[in-house]
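Standup, Tuesday
Yesterday: got the pipeline producing structure tokens again.
Today: sanity-check two examples.
Blockers: none.

Example 1:
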Amino acid sequence: MASLLNHPVSRDQAKVMNRFDITKRLVDLLHQDEAVIGGIGYTNFDLWAASSGPNGRRQQNFYMLGSMGLAVPIALGVALAQPVRKVFALEGDGSILMQLGSLSTVAARAQKNLCVVIMDNGAYQITGGQMTMTGQGADVVGIARASGLAQSAWAADEEAFAELIRLALKEDGPWLIGCRIDAGKPVDTTERDPSRIRDNFMRGLGVKG
């Protein structure tokens, strides 16, 4: 990890990866009980698609259906409520730009079981591909570090992404991993049933029978 943090790649140097591919890599590295909060839009859709298996869809995922920018605050709340469970927030660049204050809150709270993954394609893709400020020079990993999140890095490629996820699973956080992603369409669309999503997630966390 020291090499990844002490000799980091920049946003421009990071490989542009496929969103579904790295989401599937994340899900495959989980140990079954980690909570994953999927922000709105295609990040959410690919989490849904990547989480279906022979035993059904994993219940520890929470799929947001609105409330742009709140994946990180919700994930922080889950991490606070269940401090022995690793919690991941998957968020897009447009969404995190709307809620940058959450990064300083995460840093100040120093929640050890939290990891934030930012999927950055420089666009509000679901609403028509309008350019975000990351497409005009803003660096979310640099912003995270300036906010106090020292363990923040761009994933240089798929192998580096997997290594960062493995470290977040076994080492104390908080972590932030930036991922350059392409503009590929999602593999599937999340089922839009808020009550069912909530109830499944609560059962997955063991707080509802």
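Example 2:
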Amino acid sequence: MSILLNTWGVKSIWVRENETLGGSPPDEEKIKETKELLSKRLEWKPRNSWESELYELAFQTIIRS
């Protein structure tokens, strides 16, 4: 995994303890906006399970903020 992150130029990562999610689930508009934002930032589409997991983590991080 570290080789993959290094290839992408990732210099650091943050690890959080489990969080309790509060509030209501995001609406369809928020989901669409988040996917568009993430697509612009990453400029790639997941090609395997590792990349899909990284994409999902990024998506969850953005949508919660």
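Quick observation on example 2: Residues 42 and 62 are 13 Å apart (CA to CA). The chain is about 55% helix and 0% strand.
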